[in-house]
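User: Round two. Same drill as before: sequence, then structure, for each protein.

Assistant: Same drill it is. First protein:
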Amino acid sequence: SPHPFGQAPHLSDDGGVEVFESGAILLYLADKYGGNDTPEKRAKYTKWVVWANATLDPICFGHGMSGTEIAAPNKAMDRLEGILGQSEWLVDNAFSVADVAVASYLNYVPVFFG
């Protein structure tokens, strides 16, 4: 694997671009193909990708994959549920990498712990 730690995910794109880690791959693809050409536009989805990686990983998988804590009382999950209760999508009422970043964590909980 071209990933420096021999892991997945890894993306090899046109022109020899190598990107690893899911959040970095999502941000790269959004920058390259998403038409978000200003820092202000990129900030709308970047904050969600970073939040998902930093916050949802320990909630969904536990520290060191010790088990999900998603059913435990949690302010972050309560707030996310409130946000998604008001809008189907996280950014500008449209599907984006922000939704992919958040949903991917939530989707894998039943796969690993179901």
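Second protein:
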Amino acid sequence: GLFTSPHLMDVRERVRINGEMLSVEAFNTHFWHVHDTLSAAPSIEAMPGYFRFLTCVAFDVFCKADIDVVVLEVGLGGRLDATNIVPNPVVCGVTSLGLDHTNVLGDTIEE
């Protein structure tokens, strides 16, 4: 499985199995399953933001497809990143760090 961000043309580019995007029907099935599950949960006060919601959709896809290996691209990173729910990742890769998402994270590496 592969989960990346952002997409260029179609949101389904973010979630792939064996290199292939999900069909529109499969994506919609997982999207609405996650939406309905979260909507029905009494402990959820608000729907998660866009990236976190799509992360939930990706995990739903991967769990139901019985995936052996998943490559997850983090969102903003850090301890509150949506992908941190993976308890024991086998391998982690780090690329060079730049000044992305400065509107959220700050204008310097130190921030």
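The first helix runs from residue 24 to 40.

User: Perfect.
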